[in-house]
Hints:
The protein is elongated, with a radius of gyration of 26 Å. Strand 6 (about 130-135), helix 6 and strand 7 (about 155-160) form a beta-alpha-beta unit. It has helices at about 20-30, 35-45, 60-75, 95-105, 115-120, 140-155, 165-180, 200-205, 225-240, 240-250, 255-265, 270-285; strands at about 5-10, 30-35, 55, 80, 105-110, 130-135, 155-160, 180-185, 195-200, 215-220. The relative contact order is 0.11. The protein has 12 helices and 10 strands. Helix content is about 45%, strand content about 15%. It is of the alpha/beta class. The chain has 3 domains: about 5-115, Tetrapyrrole methylase, N-terminal domain (Cobalt-precorrin-4 Transmethylase, domain 1), CATH 3.40.1010.10; about 115-225, Methyltransferase, Cobalt-precorrin-4 Transmethylase, Domain 2 (2-Layer Sandwich), CATH 3.30.950.10; about 225-285, no CATH class.
Amino acid sequence: xxxxxxxxxxxxxxxxxxxxxxxxxxxxxxxxxxxxxxxxxxxxxxxxxxxxxxxxxxxxxxxxxxxxxxxxxxxxxxxxxxxxxxxxxxxxxxxxxxxxxxxxxxxxxxxxxxxxxxxxxxxxxxxxxxxxxxxxxxxxxxxxxxxxxxxxxxxxxxxxxxxxxxxxxxxxxxxxxxxxxxxxxxxxxxxxxxxxxxxxxxxxxxxxxxxxxxxxxxxxxxxxxxxxxxxxxxxxxxxxxxxxxxxxxxxxxxxxxxxxxxxxxxxxxxxxxxxxxxxxxxxxx
Length: 285
């Protein structure tokens, strides 16, 4: 019978955030797979947990996952932990989880600390709808530009992670691609020097112009408002003649009645107004 993979959330700063269930699980499994065994050893020593560890990180995630799945299939129970927070979120753990599911290995998640959710609740921005982007892919310019294009139109609150040495670069990219937006910068969450700063991208850039960012950051960014997007779409249609607008929809194979309905909706007018406008154009022609 296969063992179970336990995804154990660990503190993102304050060690008192460790859950009793996570502590009990880490004591009871056969093996702990840790992103950085040196970092995790401090956590285990604090709780006097002596379970054997092995490294599982970005650079060995595929090869090591095969090994771990083999041990799980042999009946061992394994806990997966990341440096801080919940495994498999912007983390190589997602590869191991997928391989376990494909192999029929049971996987369960022990909920606990998560930097992205902690920051969202502190941000003062909308929490009803949000998306998680993680770290921006600066190593791939084409992918970065594609991500920025998506974020430009994103109406949900956006959550990103960033390291201190890249923070200024990230703020500049966001400002140039998205324009000025509200942003909350959350630094060193749950730690002694936790700071939460609600500001704008422009003001954040000015603040860090002659200051060096310190600590790990979570950025919570305001999404683009539906009202602004609607105004922009309406303005684009207004630059098109009524005849061209009708032609746009009829060119898609829509009948005249449906095209008139869509044109009216786009332009914020009634179907009667569309009909009258087309009639006047016909009479002038």
